[in-house]
TrEMBL record, chain A:
GO terms for biological process: transmembrane transport. It comes from the Bacteria. InterPro entries: ABC_transporter_permease (IPR051393), MetI-like (IPR000515), MetI-like_sf (IPR035906). It is a multi-pass membrane protein. This is Putative ABC transporter permease protein. Belongs to the binding-protein-dependent transport system permease family.
Automatic annotation (TrEMBL), chain B:
InterPro entries: SBP (IPR006059). Keywords: Signal, Transport. This is Putative ABC transporter extracellular-binding protein YurO. GO terms for biological process: maltodextrin transmembrane transport; maltose transport.
Length: 321, 420
């Protein structure tokens, strides 16, 4: 049963393409439409994405301190500097630790929420909205709430008040890196902010799993609960899971706001973007080295994404599994 | 069959929507960061101020600007704790402010970012606190007009000291001991800021060292400073230090709310503290560190600079001269009507009645007796690398001597770039 459905999915795609080919009369028109619709977006993309990327690559080969229009060509010196910089290398470790926490945690939590909401008979729209709402909150605002009210170090902070009921001493969540409680603050704020969004993705995928699969499984004697989840739901969510994990990894790479706001003036827990920000826009204003770091990071993201795509089969048709 | 092809269609759409949203989010983040609507070029001047915590300062700054007839002055009130980063980044762009407040730092002079203001200061040079003139002078040229001097020291609650039967500490050991005795289940002994970086220079000075020598060589890497860092580490782990307070040490909230018995803060906070606590406030300098040390007070403050790359350098200088040289009533209003600051003009400091008695007068006394001014050669990059020392040795259990050595290396590299 499951093999026939997946085959069926892949087939209509080539058929559609061949159908549109003979309609040459509309071709000029559709080219025009293509540019009409994508033009404005492409212009924005060129100005705000491609030009800065090109400029950044150009800058990375120059000695550019306190200027973005440098004249002194230095070859690969900036790359040498950034690759031998202990802070930059540590930031990659920080990212790895962060991703190891946040990617599985968000995946599991958003899938869990989706399963719960999907089973609701009443008020499903309400709970869907409630869980999605944090997505609309800014990372800066959320980190300030986390820092100043939930995880502040004084006796009336929410977390410390709760711990106080059990006789636990006040904890300095962010100031003291030993033990590293700051990870709890950072992971929970991002979890709260992003799981609602990924829950919606899972919910959509869950609602598209054909009911017949469950019926057939029931006839074959599969028990409801873990067994059907493990052998039907999870495999059917494979494409969505792959996409979610990819998006989560990219988001983790882009992490900046909460680290910047929660771990100011610390030397630990600095992810790559914060490190590059400090180098390029902080007191050093070394745009050359900062750009070199950005290029290195971009290459790294490309490699990781391609590698992940290779392992998990993102963008591949399901028949090629 | 139809259900499953639907599934594929939906999944793609959902993904597309996800990508679209992510892209839109990115674009929105870029777009919303332009900072301001208009101005910058033409007749208007733009000035940058960091966000003063006291009520009424923003309105006052805008009122002065409005009263100026020479140009249309727009004020950018920069909130957040990274004023210097925003300023440095803005100075590189076409949207740079024409006039901005900051501290004297030589890299801005060397990279040609601040204009020479000698001609507007020279006529009244003798009326300025000479230490303020010195800290803004490079090779005989004066690059900024001091607006306010802000002495920073430790505030304490005499009633709590009496209850705990302790004297005002004069050494770091005594301070740490006092913090221990003052700590109860509700009140922490002392608050030095959430990251302890606000006592960076006081620690150096109190240990008998300095940031740089007179001929610009690192002078902070001494055994006494290392010992001081070690003692602060002890305080950090003792449980007597207030940490992760909702407001940092430049704000008097922790002290006013009774979260701490001693707090590092500045003279600007005195009016707010007096309003909340009445007479139950005392002040003392940062205690001496080690046997060769000496108590110290940090004479911080803010100065006005003109962006040398602005299109309106002359108009900007005219405005700075009008407000910060000529308009003495505004200068006094700015220094004494909101928070308390010491006017750098000696004639104004002499006539400012609010600073003549009580706690403010004591502040002025500490300023004169124990104060250390900014060194123009001690730049943001050096400040930040010493902050790393504090993070690594006080908040983390790093070796002070190794951290100071690493910092000295960085400072040396900076000095080489600046002085060759």
């Amino acid at each position: 049963m499951s093999t026939t459905t997946t085959r069926g999915v892949a087939q209509p795609a080539p058929a559609k393409v061949s159908k549109t080919r003979p309609r040459r009369g509309l071709r000029a028109n559709s080219t025009f439409n293509f540019w009409l619709f994508t033009g404005p977006f492409l212009i924005g993309l060129v100005i705000f994405v491609f030009v800065p990327i090109g400029w950044s690559i150009w800058l990375s080969f120059f000695e550019a301190r306190f200027t973005v229009t440098p004249s002194e060509f230095v070859g690969f010196d900036n790359y040498k500097q950034i690759l031998t910089d202990a802070n930059f290398r540590n930031s990659l470790v920080t990212f790895t630790v962060f991703a190891a926490f946040i990617v599985p945690a968000t995946w599991a939590l958003s899938l869990g929420l989706a399963l719960l909401v999907n089973r609701l008979r009443f008020m499903r729209a309400f709970f869907r909205s409630v869980f999605f709402l944090p997505t609309a909150v800014s990372y800066v605002a959320a980190s300030l709430i986390w820092k100043m009210s939930i995880f502040n170090g004084v006796r009336f902070g929410l977390a410390n008040t709760v711990l106080g009921w059990f006789g636990v001493e006040n904890i300095a969540w962010l100031a003291n890196p030993d033990p590293p409680w700051y990870w709890l603050v950072i992971v929970t704020v991002r979890l709260w902010l992003q799981s609602g969004f990924f829950m919606i993705l899972f919910l959509a995928a869950l609602q598209n799993i054909p009911q017949e699969l469950y019926e057939a499984a029931a006839i074959d004697g599969a028990k409801r609960g873990w067994q059907t989840f493990r052998h039907i739901t999870l495999p059917q969510l494979r494409a969505t899971s792959t996409a979610v994990i990819l998006l989560l990894l990219i988001a983790a790479y882009q992490a900046f706001d909460e680290f910047f706001n929660l771990l100011a003036k610390a030397t630990w827990g600095q992810p790559p973007l914060v490190e590059l920000y400090k180098m390029a826009l902080g007191q050093n204003q070394n745009y050359g080295a900062g750009s070199a770091g950005a290029v290195v990071l971009t290459l790294l993201i490309c490699v990781v994404t391609l590698f992940q795509g290779k392992i998990m089969g993102f963008g591949r048709g399901e028949e090629s599994k | 069959m139809s259900a499953s092809s639907n599934m594929n269609w939906d999944r793609r759409n959902v993904l597309r929507a996800a990508m679209g949203l992510a892209a839109a989010g990115g674009l929105a983040a870029c777009g919303s960061n332009t900072g301001r609507g208009s101005g910058g070029s033409g007749d208007g001047l733009v000035q940058y101020f960091h966000a003063y915590g006291e009520a009424g300062v923003e309105q006052a700054v805008k009122r002065y600007a409005k009263a100026y007839k020479g140009a249309n002055v727009t004020t950018q009130w920069i909130t957040g704790n990274n004023f210097e980063q925003k300023l440095f980044a803005a100075l590189l762009t076409k949207n740079a402010p024409d006039v901005f407040e900051f501290h004297p730092q030589i890299q801005m002079v060397k990279s040609g970012q601040v204009a020479d203001l000698t001609d507007i200061i020279e006529p009244v040079k003798d009326d300025f606190n000479q230490a303020d003139i010195k800290s803004h002078t490079v090779d005989g040229k004066i690059y900024g007009v001091r607006m306010i001097d802000d002495p920073q020291f430790l505030f304490y609650r005499p009633s709590m000291f009496e209850k705990a039967k302790i004297e005002v500490p004069t050494t770091l050991e005594e301070l740490i001991e006092a913090a221990d005795k003052l700590t109860t289940s509700k009140v922490k002994g002392i608050f030095l800021g959430n990251d302890l970086t606000s006592v960076d220079r006081p620690l150096i000075w109190s240990a008998g060292a300095d940031t740089l020598t007179a001929d610009n060589k690192p002078a902070f890497n001494t055994d006494a400073v290392a010992e001081g860092l070690k003692q602060l580490r002890g305080l950090f782990t003792s449980g007597n230090l207030l940490l992760d307070a909702p407001a940092d040490s430049w704000d008097p909230s922790a002290f006013i709310q009774g979260l701490t018995a001693i707090q590092w803060c500045g003279m600007w906070a005195m009016p707010a503290m007096q309003k909340a606590l009445g007479d139950d406030i005392g002040i003392f300098p940062f205690p001496k560190v080690g046997s060769a040390g000496k108590q110290s007070v940090y004479n911080g403050g803010w100065s006005m600079f003109v962006n040398a790359k602005s299109k309106n350098v002359e108009a900007a200088k005219e405005y700075v001269k009008w407000l910060w040289i000529d308009q003495k009533q505004y200068q006094e209003d700015f220094a004494t009507s909101y928070g308390f600051h010491i006017p750098p003009r000696t004639s104004l400091a002499a006539s400012a009645t609010k600073l003549k008695s009580g706690l403010p007068a004591e502040g002025v006394k500490l300023f004169n007796e124990f104060g250390h001014f900014d060194n123009i050669g001690w730049t943001q990059a050096m400040i930040a690398s010493f902050w790393d020392v504090i993070a690594n040795t006080v908040r983390k259990n790093g070796d002070p001597k190794a951290a100071l050595d690493a910092c000295e290396k960085k400072v040396d590299a900076e000095l080489k770039k600046l002085f060759g």
